[in-house]
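Help needed: design a sequence for this.
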């Protein structure tokens, strides 16, 4: 325990990845002492030697539980640590495809060497008694096809053929029949999604059936080939547990974002909880369901970064804020580019647009928000609908050309000066003016009050501040600029 406390003193100097490995190492060696009965020193040595500090403890326990279901005891797992480094889904796929391809008495040492064994000629596998001598491997694979065409036959070289090549021949022939595919389409599919080369036929058939039930055509299955190599247990469980999430039908979401078919139910739950913890409403989540394609850790990290960066944080009330989570790296790159061009209005509409719209925005040199961006910002602050401020705000000629960060800064300054939301709302375009100019105007109003002894209402103070600022600019609206600028015309 003392040693552990000493180690913790150095945790703050670790990177995020190193810290994760450190925590996993401490948890994992304790796991091997408790669950496998190893002494502490042996457990530490085992975890370190077999690179298990990178694996989360709960993932190891899932692997152990799955292996125990297959009848493997803990001692056999200890002798084959490579199995403990596999993802449970991968292990399940390996076991199933080996069984489909005629392997018998499958043991941990066979699973740990799967990638070596599946490249072996069938004759070698039979000589080592991994496959029964009488087994027709191609027929064994075909028996697991559902549905299977009548009199389905695949020509092979017999036992001289490499086991994986027989799998590929059956796979190609089946996809040609089931999806009316060409040789070229299948070659491209395997090149882009190589794990399908080792896919269990049971799971492949289930993936095709699920895709058909969701309305995917064969052409779309090839276009989004990852849905054929996914883990159908996940898809089924997600549809069962979350038929509706954030008010959106999950089947419809999967049709719109096919990659959702590869998302685990635990990730759906974790991501939804993270979004709610960050006060993201269902209406916003429903607009960007592809957020569930990310990992929970990625969603958490990106939301925290959005809250740290002023230009992003001010957009949190926008119903499209999850665009900046899904396309976070692109949004960061665009924000940097806008600053280099000295364009100050960085809204979701700009940062989250597709490339063609963003390029038009840059080419035309626009430095303006859209009204929808301003509306979302003001609605988030005042909890009021558009009708409460639209007509007043639009009276100002440059209401679209003030950065939201500047409007937010002015709002919080007014709140610190004890102005109420109703008062600010009545003089809504006060938010378009820089804080420094308002400070100077209020100083002049203070001098007026000291001379005349008259108290002004909050609304009158705000209107008077506007009068003082705009008087210098002949009431043209140019008072919103921090320094002399030439506003663009007709930016709407």
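Sure. Designed sequence:
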């Amino acid at each position: 325990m003392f040693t552990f406390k000493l180690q913790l003193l150095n945790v703050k100097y670790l990177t995020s990845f190193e810290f994760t490995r450190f925590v996993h190492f401490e948890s994992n060696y304790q796991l091997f002492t408790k669950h496998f009965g190893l002494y502490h020193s042996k457990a530490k040595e085992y975890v370190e030697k077999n690179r298990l500090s990178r694996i989360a403890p709960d993932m190891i326990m899932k692997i152990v539980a799955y292996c125990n279901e297959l009848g493997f005891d803990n001692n056999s797992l200890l002798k084959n640590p490579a199995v403990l480094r596999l993802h449970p889904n991968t292990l399940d796929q390996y076991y199933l495809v080996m069984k489909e391809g005629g392997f018998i008495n499958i043991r941990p040492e066979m699973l740990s060497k799967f990638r070596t064994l599946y490249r072996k000629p069938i004759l070698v596998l039979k000589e080592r008694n991994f496959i029964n001598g009488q087994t027709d491997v191609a027929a064994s694979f075909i028996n697991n096809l559902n549905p299977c065409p009548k009199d389905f036959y695949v020509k092979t070289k017999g036992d001289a053929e490499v086991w994986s090549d027989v799998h590929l021949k059956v796979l190609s022939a089946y996809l040609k029949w089931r999806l009316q595919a060409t040789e070229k389409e299948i070659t491209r599919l395997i090149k882009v999604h190589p794990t399908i080369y080792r896919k269990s036929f049971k799971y492949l058939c289930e993936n095709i059936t699920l895709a058909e039930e969701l309305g995917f055509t064969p052409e779309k299955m090839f276009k989004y080939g990852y849905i054929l190599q996914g883990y159908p247990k996940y898809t089924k469980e997600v549809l069962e547990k979350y038929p509706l999430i954030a008010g959106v039908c999950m089947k419809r979401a999967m049709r719109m974002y096919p990659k959702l078919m590869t998302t685990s139910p635990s990730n759906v739950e974790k991501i939804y909880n993270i979004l709610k913890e960050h006060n993201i409403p269902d209406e916003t989540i429903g607009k960007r369901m592809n957020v569930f394609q990310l990992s929970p850790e990625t969603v958490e990290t990106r939301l925290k970064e959005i809250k740290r960066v002023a230009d992003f944080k001010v957009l949190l009330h926008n119903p499209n804020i999850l665009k900046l989570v899904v396309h976070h790296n692109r949004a960061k790159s665009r924000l940097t580019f806008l600053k280099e061009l000295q364009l100050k209005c960085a809204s979701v509409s700009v940062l989250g647009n597709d490339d063609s719209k963003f390029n038009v925005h840059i080419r035309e040199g626009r430095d303006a928000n859209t009204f929808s961006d301003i509306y979302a910002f003001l609605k988030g602050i005042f909890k009021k609908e558009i009708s409460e401020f639209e007509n007043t705000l639009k009276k100002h000629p440059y209401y679209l050309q003030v950065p939201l960060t500047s409007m937010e800064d002015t709002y919080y300054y007014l709140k610190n000066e004890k102005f109420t939301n109703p008062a600010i709302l009545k003089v809504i375009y006060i938010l378009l003016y820089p804080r420094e100019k308002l400070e100077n105007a209020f100083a002049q109003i203070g001098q007026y009050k000291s001379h005349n002894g008259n108290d002004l209402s909050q609304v009158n103070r705000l209107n008077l501040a506007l009068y003082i600022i705009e008087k210098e600019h002949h009431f043209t609206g140019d008072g919103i600029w921090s320094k002399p600028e030439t506003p663009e015309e007709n930016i709407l």
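Residues 1-23, 486-492 have pLDDT under 50 and may be disordered.
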